[in-house]
Write a structure and sequence with these properties.
Elements (H helix, E strand, L loop, with lengths): L1 H14 L2 H5 L7 E7 L5 H13 L8 E6 L10 H8 L4 E5 L1 H10 L5 E5 L18 E5 L2 H15 L5 E6 L5 H15 L3 E6 L3 H12 L4 E2 L1
Parallel strand pairs: 1-2, 1-3, 3-4, 4-5, 6-7, 6-8
Length: 218
């Protein structure tokens, strides 16, 4: 996790012009908006700040970080994105596909650094080599790992017959991930139980539901 958040920090730093970074003074404070679908964990935030510090940006000196997340989903609380965009931040870090979708709808000018599973398949960028537009960032390659993940579950839980999957239907990246998971479990003669969830409360309920019917929930 810390490595991924450091890479995001690196992406934020390189999103600013090199000349501006070279000429930055103590009086120049860069404004970063960090938005996620749910409250980021302390470990994620600490890793992000550590990565920025290693690039020469120290919160309270030449860096200001505004952390935001919606109350429920972005559709239920669209003002969280509008307020962040209108606060004149220099760059926005968007964790997870729903956050990128919401921010992209709100601005085509502020640089966006994303952390998503399938940036090309989700339609955020044209290609990994030439993203274009105002979005850059990285993929967490979760889609490519689904088949191996299922193989590991079978080894860890002998006799497993059913696996539960919690899906955010508003996350386009979940389509590819679910397809890969279903293909993998069918080859292993395992059934899939899919439950949709968008908010943190819905995710808790979904996992509670799957615990009653499935050997593994992910």
């Amino acid at each position: 996790m810390r490595r991924r958040e450091f890479i995001v920090a690196l992406g934020v730093a390189t999103a600013w012009p090199l000349v501006a970074r070279a000429q930055q003074a103590a009086s120049t404070v860069r404004q970063v908006g960090l938005i996620a679908s749910a409250p980021p964990t302390p470990a994620m935030l600490n890793a992000f700040r550590d990565g920025m510090r290693e690039r020469g940006y120290i919160e309270g000196q030449n860096l200001s970080v505004a952390v935001r997340w919606p109350q429920g989903s972005f559709d239920q609380d669209p003002s969280v994105v509008t307020e962040l965009v209108n606060s004149n931040v220099d760059v926005i870090v968007a964790w997870a596909t729903p956050a990128v979708i919401a921010v992209r709808r709100a601005t085509w000018t502020i640089p966006i650094v994303m952390v998503v599973g399938d940036p090309v398949g989700s339609g955020f960028i044209a290609s990994l080599a030439r993203p274009g537009g105002n979005i850059t960032g990285l993929s967490n390659i979760a889609v490519d790992l689904n088949a191996k993940l299922m193989e590991l579950f079978v080894e860890l839980v002998p006799g497993m017959k059913r696996v539960g999957v919690v899906r955010n239907p508003n996350n386009p990246g979940m389509t590819a991930m679910l397809r890969e998971t279903e293909d993998a479990v069918h080859k292993l003669n395992i059934q899939v139980e899919v439950v949709d969830a968008q908010t943190s409360i819905e995710f808790e309920r979904a996992f509670a539901q799957l615990r009653t019917c499935c050997s593994v929930a992910l």
